[in-house]
Each structure stands twice: as C-alpha cells, then as structure tokens.
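Lab manual, section 2.4: Encoding a predicted structure.

Procedure: take the sequence of the chain (442 residues), apply the prediction step described in section 2.3, and record the output as structure tokens. A sample record is shown.
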Amino acid sequence: MFNPMSRLSPLFVLFIITLFSCVHEAPNNLDYELSKVMGDKSHYILPSSTEYDKIPQSPVNPLTKEKIALGNLLFFEPAFANEAKYTAGLGTYTCSTCHVVESGFRPGRMQGIADGANGYGEIGERRHMSSLYQAHEVDAQGARPLAVLNVAFVENTMWNGSFGHTGPNASTRQAWGVSDAFTKLNELELGALEGQNIAGLEVHRMMYNKETITKNKYKKLFDEAFPDMSEEERYSRKAASFAISAYLRSLLTDQTPFQDWLKGNHNSMSDQEKRGAILFFGKVGCASCHNGPNLGSMQFAAVGVDDLFEHGGIKTNINDARNLGRGGFTLKPEDLYKFRVPQLYNLGDSGPYFHGGSKNTLEDVVRYFNNGIAENKRVPESQLSPFFRPLNMNEQEIKDLTVFLEKSLRDPNLQRYKPTSIVSGLCFPNNDLESQIDLDCR
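Recorded output:
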C-alpha cells in the first residue's frame, strides 16, 4: 500500500518533530518538583477579564460589559476631578493618577498624590506637590496605595481590610463607622470595592450627579450600564462606583509566564524562575501567607516595616492611624500593626514596597524577609508574624526567588486595560500642564 509519509524528506520530518517538541516540551525535573510543592495548580489559575462567571463579584453589582466599559473610561477621566481644592486643580487628575498602568496599577513614585500635584514623567515617577498647595491640602494618603490588579479576589479591601461586610469583617460590625466614618458603608452590604469606591470618589474630590454626568457627555453610557437603577441612583457616586468596581474586577493578570506554566506551557519559565517558584511554594514558605489565586490572602500579618512618614510621605506622621494596620480599624490590641497580605503580580513594574515604601526593590524585600529582623522598633516583637523569621537562603536562592517575583509574575500586556481615548478628549491619566508636556498630549 502506498504510504504518503514515505515521500517526506527525513530532514522535514525532523523539523516537524523538533517544532512540536519546542511547543510542547515535556516537563523536566524542576517542573515535577514545582508541581509537587504547589499541590492543586488549578487553584492559582486566574480567569481572563471576559470570563465573568469565574470572576468574584458582588451579588448587587453583577459584571456586564457595559459597566466594565464605563468604569474603564471613568477610571481615566479627568473631567470628574471637579471638587479640587483650588481652581488650578480642576480637571487635572484621575483614579489612574495613583494607580498607573505602566507602574503595575500603583503609583510610579513612593506616594500617590491626586489633587494638589503636577507632573507625570514616564510611569508617574515625576509627580510632585504643587507649589499652590500646602501639604495638608493635597489629596495624599498615609500609606502607599495597593495595586488594584486581581482585586476581585480581595474580600476586604485596603491595607487594614476595613471595607466589606463578609469574610474577616463579618465579626467587626461594632467597628464600622468608628475609626473611619466611611466604613459605615459596610452596613449597606454592597461589596468591599463598591463601598470603598463610593467613599473614594468623595475622598478624592470627584462629584457625580446628573448635572456633571450630563455636562461631561456620559449620560448615555450611564443609562446603558444601569438601565434598572432609579435615576436618583443612576446619576450618582454609587453608580460611578459600581462601574469602576466592575472595571477593577476585570483587571486580571492572566498573561504571565507563571500563568502560562500553570496551563501547561513548561517553556514559559526559565529554570531559574522555576527554582524561585519552588522556594516560594516550598521551603521558604511564602505561600503560607500568599496563598490565594492572586498570590495574596485575607490574612493580616505584622512584619515590622517602617511607616510612610519615615520615608518622605506628606500629610502623614507618627500618629497616623494607618500606621496601626488592622488594629486601627478593629480597635483590637491583637490586630495592631498587622496589614493585609497583598497580591504579588506585576510588582516589578515599580517600587517602593510595603505600606510605608521602605524597600526600593523586590530584591530588598526578599533580603528583608530572609534576614527576619523588624526595622520598625514601635512594633512589639509579640505582634510579629510567626512566619517572619530568618529564612537562611543563600545568595543564589535570593536571586532565584527575586527573578520569580520579577519575571514570572509579570503580565507584559497591561495596556489592554487602558482606553485609547476618553469622552472628554482630555489628557490622561493626568491633565495638568506639566503632565500634558510629559505625555505629549497638549
């Protein structure tokens, strides 16, 4: 019988075999070891931004493409920066001023400043306080802003976990509205992000009502996103928060080398990255705390790092309640100085790190944990996490773990979450004169 394969050149056959072996290379010993220390790999696979049924969301704010599209625009829209302290600040800042795409949705500098600042640079690193404002007048917070990537997997938001009515906060009702008046929003049971963003739009001096929404030509988009809301709620901070929260829940880093590896592409990580991952999930024990799908968790831990006022933070000082972590919200002594375990994706896009910005690079962070010695003497040793201890990694292991954090967990395509234009046509993410020059959008 005629065999068509007999006509194929041996070199061609070898090429085909080589091609498929490159695409589907068999796992090596490091892959087997990593799989063993991880356990259930499917637990860590993140959904894509369009897999709405797999993305955690609030029952009162189900995800729709219309909400996400609106939230995407609002997140970058300076036109709603309409309650600035001074006229010079009107229409100059956005949510993305402090959650910069190019910086992994974190500030490109140590502290985020919205109203009361100028400049952008390349990744937000040149943002600085305006000479027209006094320090107490700017919109700056006393802790380094968290990245909003993979925030769908965060049940209680903020460093102290103060927003949200479920999870660890289910037993904190007595604290709602006490140390932070805005946390009384938890009683509405809207969802952590939804409540936080209602408060955030007020804190960050952005007014949403029928007049401002209509003036800025967003009325039709609000109508399409919230057809079942009453007009009173539809043209309000609540609806804006719901749209922004829907958008934030869609910010998923599902295109990283580590995510590709989880899905079966054993070529996506180098051997060094795999060794770092084995350390992370294995003997170093990072996953004891960083164990959620986003490599964060709803645990609160004290690791004794400095506060923001010690590293150049403005509008903050030693008495800032944010320095107290979870205890500043719950008012329980056992919660003092404990902060929520953050997600770890795209952290290499910008430093510094921790709530106080005390470490400039990811290698600095790894070395801090390896040494296991608290730098903040105000944090009692009794409050420190039992996992915060010397790890005894050697230099090569420190390098391997750092490379895993920097490279394997980096999604290189975050620009897919940034609009090409916004309704107002203004410069974004910032619209002050210096930023316009930096962004070349005058």
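Check your result against the sample. Confidence is low (pLDDT under 50) at residues 13-22.
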